[in-house]
Amino acid sequence: MANSTAAAAPPTGPMPVLSARPPWRETFVSLRVTNYRRFAAGNLVANTAVWMQRIAMDWLVLQLSGSVAAVGVTVFMQFTPMLVFGLWGGVIADRYSKQRLLICTQTAAAALAALLAALTLTGAVQVWHVYAISFVLGLVTVVDNPARQVFVNELVGPRYLRNAISLNSSIFQLGGLIGPALGGILITAVGGGWSFVINSAACLAVVGALFSLRRDELHHSPAAPRGKGQLAEGMRYVRRKPVIFWTVVMVAVLAVFAFNMPVFLAAYANDVYDVGAQGYGMFNALVAAGALAGALASTRRTSVRLSMVVGTAAALGVVQALAGLAPGEIAFSVLLVGIGVGNLLFITAANSLVQMSSNVQIRGRVISFYILVLLGGQAIGGPLMGWVVEAAGPHVAMMISGLVPAAAAVLVAWMIARHASLRLRFGLRGRRPVIAIVNRAGKAGATL
What is the mean pLDDT of residues 39-61? Predict the structure, then answer.
């Protein structure tokens, strides 16, 4: 008989909604937790090095092959394991110690980076080597990502969870701000091989941080018992919760069309503005700078709702489409910052909503499905948008990458409103215009 974790687990607790914005001194409140502070410090070093490695890998493939589509294939190889095995990663994360899983995955990532460094520095590297290592890194990610996402709750507990999620995004993007710039300089100065050496050392630093955590201060999640049908159970759970389901739908659309910036930026750096590896790194750094601002802004939210996820997706799509129409490099660079802001506001809202809407005992499977859609969509979108770039040009491809998500957001909003029998009502409050969401009877509707 199938084990019903969802039924046995306690109901999802109410999501915290603040009546006022938290004071600025509370922006980094989760860093007061010693374990999270150690984990975050290791992550900052590792994320900077990972971004350096990503820039070096993309540029290495472009140099070896001369094809932007080949960069898309690299993305495909890294994310394909998530398409095939992603849901199993969630089952593993629900069953075993997240701390031990992360120690294993980071050790494996260090070994793979060291191998890629040896191949590159000796001049023996070929495109298929990068593809193969990208694929194995994808296998590591299958377990690492859901374990990392759920482990945040064990580090800080439910009280600081949303703040920690936003800070994790800030740390990721701070690494994305520093890493590409350093990576571009390093490629120009001494070659990309040393980026892989640095990333290998950084992964080992994360392992050290994980070993240093105080186990008695962790908020241990109950392990899910073994049982048949646990993958299907996670899928049913997602389908039964509209807030999670529609969030995942929007993530899927943006992952395929909008979240393939390495493909677009490589084309703009190489074919449109001819700015080389340093320019490519700088374009990535501009996106990351905007994303860092967006991640910090997300810590100021009083609540997270489905309407925020859909609205942010629409706004991001519009800005990304405008980038395709940018008349010059300066305008394009400014819009890249806007893309970064919209990207992170969307991702942090979606991630927070999915995590806080899920029961703890099934959260690993829900998060693994979320990551499956996020990374699997990029696996499909990488070569797809690479083909569009080569067939129609970077400008048209960038416009398509924004217009499709914007249209999808409008369609999803219409479907949600229709299902809930909601409509927009326009009116005046004194001299001030008011737009409200109401049900068909004219009463105020529940905010989504």
Answer: 85
